[in-house]
């Protein structure tokens, strides 16, 4: 959960793209540490925008092996201002979290330049 390793700095991500069922698992497993690292109090969590503004992976048919591509494409469209009705105003930094078979895990961070 330490995004600053990627050179992004401590950032509140604009609506991260996570797997449809994993956000609460992430919070439960690493929430306390992540919130402490980011100096975000539990009372502020509701203010951090989280959701599946793209409709989530299930809305895309959840194609085996290609779900991460859909997440990354959504992040790119958001950064470019090309997400149509789903556009998050001022989206500059995005995060996608995905896992695959065999326990593979990937977190992608994109920043507009």
Explain the overall architecture.
- The chain has a domain at 12-19 and 49-111.
- Helix content is 29%, strand content 14%.
- It has helices at 23-37, 56-59, 67-80; strands at residues 17-18, 93-99, 105-111.
- It has a 3-stranded mixed beta sheet with strand order 1-2-3, covered by helices on one side.
- Strand 2 (93-99) and strand 3 form a beta hairpin.
- The longest helix is centred in the N-terminal third of the chain and has 15 residues, at 23-37.
- Pfam families: Thiolase_C_1.
Keywords:
globular; alpha+beta; 3 strands; 113 residues; 3 helices; three-stranded mixed β-sheet; 14% strand
Oligomeric organization of the protein chains: single chain
Task: Indicate the structural class.
Answer: alpha+beta
Secondary-structure element order, N to C: EHHHEE
Low-confidence stretches: none
What order do the strands of the largest sheet run in, or round the barrel if closed? Answer: 1-2-3
- Tally of helical runs: 3
Strand-residue proportion:
5-15%
What proportion of the residues is helical, as a percent range?
A: 25-40%
Specify Rg, calculated over alpha carbons.
14 Å
Report the principal-axis shape: globular
How many DSSP E strands? 3
How confident is the prediction overall: mean pLDDT?
70
Q: Terminal Cα separation, in Å? A: 22 Å
Sheet with most strands? 3 strands, mixed
GO molecular function, one term: acyltransferase activity, transferring groups other than amino-acyl groups
InterPro entries: Thiolase-like, Thiolase_C_2
Protein name: Thiolase C-terminal domain-containing protein
């Amino acid at each position: 959960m330490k995004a600053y390793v990627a050179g992004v700095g401590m950032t509140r991500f604009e609506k991260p793209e996570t797997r449809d069922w994993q956000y609460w698992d992430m919070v439960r497993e690493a929430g306390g540490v992540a919130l402490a690292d980011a100096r975000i109090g539990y009372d502020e969590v509701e203010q951090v925008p989280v959701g599946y503004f793209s409709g989530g992976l299930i809305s895309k048919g959840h194609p085996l092996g290609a779900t991460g591509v859909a997440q990354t494409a959504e992040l790119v469209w958001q950064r470019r201002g090309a997400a149509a009705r789903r556009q998050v105003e001022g989206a500059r930094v995005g995060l996608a979290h995905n896992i695959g078979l065999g326990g593979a895990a990937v977190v992608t961070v994109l920043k507009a330049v």
